[in-house]
Design brief:
By secondary structure, this protein is of the alpha/beta class. The protein contains eight helices and seven strands, in the order αββββαβαββααααα. Helix content is 46%, strand content 16%.
Amino acid sequence: MRRADKSKQVLALQELQEALGLETPPGRIECYDISTLQGTNTVGSMVVFAEGTPRKSDYRRFKVRGRGSLGEPDDYAAMREVLRRRFRRAVEPQDGDPGARARRSATSWTVLPNLVIVDGGKGQLGVAMEVLEEFDLLDEVPVVGLAKQREELFLPKQSHPTLLPQDSEGLYLLQRIRDEAHRFAISYHRDLRRKSTVASALDQVPGIGPKRRQVLLRTFGSLDGIRAATVQELAAVPGMTAQAAEALKEHL
């Protein structure tokens, strides 16, 4: 079974090399997706496949901060921000970056992909090309857009999309990578929404500030766990008082 899977992965990469006009099979593929709901908690995902298999240690999530993060969603602006944050780290030194130590593997940012896939059509492809050109990487990093409706591949300098055979291993791999990027973005988006909902519910309780909220969530695990606790159990949490516990129980 492993040999069969490996053969399919090799074939898929070879098919992508041929279809996309790459010099070599794309050993490292990065795919980017944007997720938003009603203009809130816009996030981006980056998933990495190495030699045709997921490399989850290199996955990254981005909370979009600029245009499109709140209010009217802007997928182009969100994609531009995510790609700029990723490729800036590839070309600029990280000395003095306070977040560098917190990242599991800061060196992974400096590894350039052999292929970038952006979820979307010509518009998303154009954004990706602009960002790569900004960091002088357009000639080094191949990029394509993958549109969902007909699984069309949009390539730079080509007016018409490329369609891979429906039964090709290359198309199957592209779909798998795109679906994984979508799943990863959605899971992060849901996590942020859940945390936002919990924070909002607890912030409305008199006497429950950020510190008490953190301790309560750490103690009981979730909003449902806090709801299920007795007044005595709530009051026993470090930093809580009987009065705050009663107010919390009454509110929830």
